[in-house]
Amino acid sequence: MNMKIFLLTLLLILCKTSSYAQLDLPELSPEGKIIQKAGFTAINIRYGRPAARGRKIMGDVVPYNSLWRTGAGKCSTISFDNDVQINNAKISAGVYAILTIPGEKNWTVLLNSDTSKAYGDPLEYDVKTEALRFNVIPKKSGRFYESLTIDLDIVLYDAVLYLAWENTEINFRILTGSHQKAMAEIEKAIETN
Asked: Model-level pTM?
């Protein structure tokens, strides 16, 4: 008998007949969370962090030119407690599913107001609830990312979102308008003194 089949059969028998059914194992794609204040705006991101585990990611595990939920498990989300601007478009305060369509030379980033779907099947996607669609240019990352990583950098009260996995990285700016609000407050204080 093939050794793999034997071991799989043994494992199934053990799981049904013993305490092995209650194994407590670590998650393969643990949840990642970012809670960040950028100026006056709170930005929260929640996503599943799959790992490469020796697999080719871009163009294989994550196929090119197909909708990707941009994470694992339920859909990845990003929320803003104030209106923001991304790619010259106003995004109202709220929670959005963040999805992508990766390509070798171009990625499409999508924000969708329907966060109830896992988006594991591209047929789940409804363009009617799409809040934003824009393109970014991927680049080779400066290091290898074993797990999908999303991070925020704060630049003059605005945020730059970085998304990286394997050797590929994309980024885009999230404008909060906080610098302009702060400057207006300073000018107002100077005028009244």
From this structure: 0.84
